Amino acid sequence: MAEVQAIKDDDTIRMVGHLLSIRCNPQMADVWHIGLNLALRISDLLSIRFEDIHDDRLIIRESKTGKLANIQLNTIAQQHIARLREKHPDHIYLFQSHRCQQLKNKPPQPITRRAVSMAFQQVGQELNIALGTHSMRKTRGYFLYQSTKDIGRVMKMLRHTSEGVTLRYIGITQDEVDKDFVSLEL
């Protein structure tokens, strides 16, 4: 499995969402758009229940780390979530599998990581980019770092404990750090 990277330009971000909607299904585009705005690991993103959303906040316990994620929802995330809640008022999960609804006597389940991964890979191949389930989280971290140059803020958002891990995760290379040193003259 190839390592995926952050998407580093707005046009590609928009194109990924568009292609997911038309090549796969609108639900995959919703995963992309909401995932970009929440910066959660895919397992946590897919496990979100509507009951985890309180007004403008999402409160969940991360499955990998056990840390509490208390995320204020931005306008884009709120709009997508409100539309999903209105469209599927009986759903338990934000990204509930439609297949489970067709099976009687089976409790509702979220869509699978595998389904999302396959959809993202399909679109990634079409765009000739390494796109995967971590791309949303990496992209959010990359854009926050580019706008603030504050690795501490990015670490806090991603709930990382190491600067080095965070820099590698969001795809900040030594060349980019070198450019920052050259361009900033005091």
TrEMBL record:
PROSITE patterns linked to this entry: TYR_RECOMBINASE (PS51898)
Ranges of residues in domain Tyr recombinase: 2-182
Gene3D superfamilies (UniProt xref): Intergrase catalytic core
Coiled coil: none
Record key words, sorted: DNA integration, DNA recombination
A Pfam family hit: Phage_integrase
InterPro entries recorded: DNA_brk_join_enz, Integrase-like_cat_sf, Integrase_catalytic, Tyrosine_recombinase_XerCD
Source superkingdom: Bacteria
Name the record gives this protein: Site-specific integrase
Organism lineage string: Bacteria, Pseudomonadati, Pseudomonadota, Gammaproteobacteria, Vibrionales
